[in-house]
Amino acid sequence: MLANRLSEDPAVNVALIEAGDSATTRELHVPAAYGRLIQSSYDWNLWSEPEPGLGGRRLPLPRGRTLGGSSAVNAMIYIRGHRSDYDAYAARGATGWSYDEVLPYFRRSEDNERGADAYHGTGGPLSVSDPRSRHPLADAFLDACEQAGHPLNPDFNAAVQDGAGRYQLTQRQGRRCSTATAFLLPAVSRPNLTVMTGATVQRILIEHGRATGVLARRDGREFTVAAGQEVVVCAGSYHSPQLLMLSGIGPAAELAAHGIRIQQDLPVGEGLQDHLAVPLVWLTDEPTLHARSTPHNLDLAWHEGRGPMTSNGSEAGAFLRTRDGLPAPDVQLGFAHAIWHEEGLGDTRHNGYTILVSFLHPAGRGRVALRSAAPDHTPRILGNFLTDQADAHSVADGLRLALDMAGQPALRARGGRPFLLPAEDDDRALVEFARRTGSTTYHPTSTCAIGRVVDERLRVLGIEGLRVADASVLPAVPRGNTNAAAIMVAEKASDLIRRRDPLAGATATLPQRSAGYERTRTRDQNRTRNRDQNRTRNRTQARDRLHELGANAAPVDPADLDTLWTRLDTVRPDQILGTWRGTALNTGHPTADRLRALRWYGKAFHSPDEVEPMICRDENGNLYADTQAAGGGGRLLSLPFRGEITTALLYDTKPVVDYFKQADEDTLMGIMTGSDRPSEAGHPFYFVLLRP
User: Fold this and answer.
1) Residue 24, phi then psi, degrees to nearest 5
2) Residue 580: pLDDT above 90?
3) H/E element holding 244?
4) Ramachandran angles phi, psi of 449, nearest 5°
5) Is the CB of residue 429 less than 8 Å from the CB of residue 422?
6) Beta pairing partners, 464
7) What is the mean pLDDT of the chain?
């Protein structure tokens, strides 16, 4: 969004640096397919630290790793939050961030299909639409809300948030409208805008208290991008604080412990807030999203923008107050005609529906900290869910509201059968259920908050020429989904950076595309298509050869295997180091406990017998099979994965980093460790599981 707004001024040059690639796969554009993006190459694949309030569980924390960031992989729900959220920011010192002051920025971005009014805008780049797919179970949920005494609300983003209704979505003609689609695509032909994809920023360069540029890395080589005016960090609530700390801006004691030169002592990473979500799930005989996710419907949504896969899965919801006297709703119910459980990674191969209970005004705060001074190591992230007693009371009351809704005639008539529900309805049982099943709603904020890390103009305190402009600057998490708020922050930031009076001379319409732009776009699309076809051909041939070797238990020459891995081109290093729940870096639990907790695309592994090693390399790169030295050779064998996986390849840390570059979700099932000591030498090995 900032790339668009800032490059409107032809007198400045703008460089956008993105770690991921452009959004090319269909799953990034077909709304109902977004679940397939979790733990793919389009996801940073982050995991939390053990959550003390959730029984020590580690939670997956999906974040978009592509142009458009998390707006390219989210559920597309357009919610701004409650008026009181923004008024509270202003009351606590965030001058200029009250609701009345930020509302014009929400409106400026928006092209709402319902038309313009006091709360909504038209003609902006961001398409906000009513759902094209309207599942009858969502209607039953809304009827149940009315039967439970809750009013219907046609617009959660207008004067009143309370009530139940259908969500509006960031979609255009039945397809996802991410910030890349809405803002970046119309601007890419501008000569003063440079977009660098596949480039990871290592740190911000700071000289004499001023940000002068960034050090980045792409294709194994480091390079510098100099900033003539400013560096603006938009890496999100997990990576923005990590990047600041890697650059010497953060808690002095923590930076010193990692050997990082201190540029500015600030509470970076502190104050993390997110919404806890607890799923209540029922099975049904009605066809839900699982039954409707067919190749035909995928093609229909992709080519024509219609059909059941234009649904975001959660079409309706409700904002409710658990008790009298609250200034605003403290619970959001999201109704999904799909099964959502086990932190979103559980088996979804059944027809069912879910009421996801999200708690909007948490008292607890978490933090983001460094794991090491290495830029490619994932940060330590702790949400601190349910560690505050006030949050526990809200959980019990919120779950009762949702269970009451599910017990109304409108939903009872649909024949739902319990799948994941609390055993009892007393406070203790409800809270324990939440500790066992709760997860994040993917709404992290507040790790670089206004007043603590940045000022009201989003300038990092004590450092010139450096700002942060994403959801991390919000002093507290707003009531609702956070994508709209993040876009608003960028809209306001563009005016602050350009030193304009709010909304003066703002451009609300999409730039006209020139003939030159269309020719360039066609050429780039052809190049991308040819490149993807070549990659697919190479991967297919390599995969077939690996399967052939596995089926025949044939001897494997190390040089031949190297060639196959190079052509397979499957996994990024940062997906491996400190990413998966099963790795030694992510958990200190014994092997059997780790495997019980490990899931991959719905498959659970319950014992070490299910993940025996097959072919390995030692730290010198020598091959050996079945954990026994084999003199530099080995046999490629299939593992007993009950028919779900035909081939598994096992490597230690260094060869994995050397050989696997980026995820190919058509081939890859996942990566995990099999045990604490899978080899006689005691090296940590990683299994790369290939789809049949």
Assistant:
1) -115, -30
2) no
3) helix 236-246
4) -70, 150
5) yes
6) 210
7) 79
Structure-token match 């259920």, residue found: 433
Q: Are strands 249-250 and 264-265 parallel, antiparallel or unpaired?
A: parallel
- The residue with greater pLDDT, 593 or 10, is 10
* The model's pTM: 0.76
Number of H helices, E strands in the chain: 17, 35
Question: What distances in angstroms separate CA 495 from CA 5, 206, 488, one per listed residue?
Answer: 9, 24, 11
Mean pLDDT of 521-531: 56
CB 136 within 8 A of CB 122: no
d(CA 220, CA 217): 6
- Percent of the chain clearing pLDDT 70 (strictly above): 73
Q: According to CATH, what is the number of the domain 9-47+59-126+169-274+442-503?
A: 3.50.50.60
Q: At what angle do helices 483-497 and 99-109 cross, to 10 degrees?
A: 100
Tell me the per-residue pLDDT of 284-317, one tens digit each, with 9 for 90 and over.
Answer: 999 888 888 888 888 888 888 999 999 999 999 9
Residue 395 contacts residue 386 (beta carbons within 8 Å): yes
Quote the pLDDT of residue 692.
Answer: 37
Are β-strands 126-128 and 163-166 bridged in parallel, bridged antiparallel, or unpaired? unpaired
Residue at token pair 């709402």: 112
Pick the more confident residue, 536 or 365.
Answer: 365
Question: What residue spans in the chain does CATH classification 3.30.410.40 cover?
Answer: 132-166+276-361+386-437
- The pair of structure tokens assigned to 576 is 């491996």
- Mean pLDDT of the region 80-96: 97
Q: Give the separation between CA 664 and CA 345, rounded to whole angstroms.
A: 18
CB 182 within 8 A of CB 484: no
Residue 349 in contact with residue 114, Cβ under 8 Å? no
Which residues of the chain are in CATH 3.50.50.60 domains?
Answer: 9-47+59-126+169-274+442-503
- 325 contact partners, CB below 8 Å, separation of at least 6: none
- Of 127, 123, 214, 159, nearest in space to 509 by CA: 123
Catalytic residue among 341, 443, 547, 589: 443
Whole-number pLDDT of residue 158 = 96
pLDDT for residue 478 is more than 80: yes
Contact 613/678 with Cβ under 8 angstroms? yes
Residue that wins the pLDDT comparison between 13 and 346: 13
Dihedral sign from CA coordinates of 322, 324, 327, 328:
positive
Site of tokens 């014994």: 590
Q: For the stretch 19-34, what's the b/e string if a residue is b when 16 or more beta carbons lie within 10 angstroms of its beta carbon? A: bbbbbebebbbbbbbb
Question: What is the Cα–Cα distance from 177 to 183, expressed in whole angstroms?
Answer: 9
Beta carbons of 189 and 517 less than 8 angstroms apart: yes
Which residues have a Cβ under 8 Å from the Cβ of 441 and sit 6 or more positions away?
274, 275, 276, 277, 356, 358, 481
Query: What are the CA-CA distances from residue 359 to residues 329, 387, 399, 428, 434 (Å)?
Result: 9, 14, 10, 17, 11
Enter the tokens of residue 561: 């295997």
Q: How many residues does the chain have?
A: 692
> Span 133-144, mean pLDDT?
94
Burial 407-425 (b: 16+ CB within 10 A, else e): ebebbeebebeebbebeee
- 393 included as an active-site residue: no
Residue 581: pLDDT band (50, 70, 90) is very low
What number does CATH give the domain 132-166+276-361+386-437? 3.30.410.40
